[in-house]
Design a protein that fits this description.
- The chain is mainly α and about 150 residues long.
- The chain folds into 2 domains: about 30 residues; about 110 residues, Recoverin, domain 1.
- About 60% of the residues lie in helices and about 5% in strands.
- It contains 8 helices and 4 strands; from the N terminus they run ααβαβαααβαβα.
- The protein has a two-stranded antiparallel sheet. The protein has a two-stranded antiparallel sheet with strand order 2-3.
- Helix 3 packs antiparallel against helix 7 and helix 6 crosses helix 7.
- About 15% of the residues are buried.
């Protein structure tokens, strides 16, 4: 075997391995953010008008959008497999699992939009510690990672 041919085989092997890793979605390839960075990012996503507060309407709108993104096949329910394939799970696995667990009120292993919306209304009320119907950055970041029970 010639050196040139061996070199070409090595290039193909390296390229194949690289493409496999790149397309596999390996957990170790996900970006690493501190809790503060992730909360700041999420807060901006929820706070549609950028006023520094999250209203219940903003919170529920984001929840509805998140449901649509997580319902990968568009059948109106999120299965555990869809959850595990979601960006939400990729970036915040513990929170995603807690939301799934607590939204699955009938414990059938999947969640409907109604189940998620009802559970998230309860979650909003629990985070809104001063009952002013908006979440401050402090209420959101302190309470967002806590478990809740619907």
């Amino acid at each position: 075997m010639t050196l040139k041919r061996l070199s070409m085989k090595r290039k193909i092997i390296v390229l194949t391995l690289f493409l496999g890793i790149l397309t596999s979605g390996c957990a170790w390839m996900k970006p690493h953010y501190s809790d503060d960075e992730m909360h700041a990012y999420l807060f901006k996503k929820y706070d549609n008008d950028g006023d520094g507060m999250i209203t219940k309407e903003e919170y529920m709108l984001f929840t509805e959008q998140r449901f649509k993104k997580m319902d990968l096949n568009g059948d109106g329910v999120i299965t555990k497999d869809e959850l595990l394939d979601s960006r939400f799970y990729t970036f915040l696995p513990e929170l995603a699992l807690a939301v799934f667990r607590d939204s699955d009120t009938d414990k059938n292993g999947q969640i409907t939009k109604d189940e998620m919306m009802e559970a998230e209304q309860i979650r909003f009320a629990q985070m809104d510690q001063n009952s002013d119907k908006v979440l401050s950055k402090i209420e959101f970041s302190v309470n967002d990672m806590q478990e809740f029970k619907a």
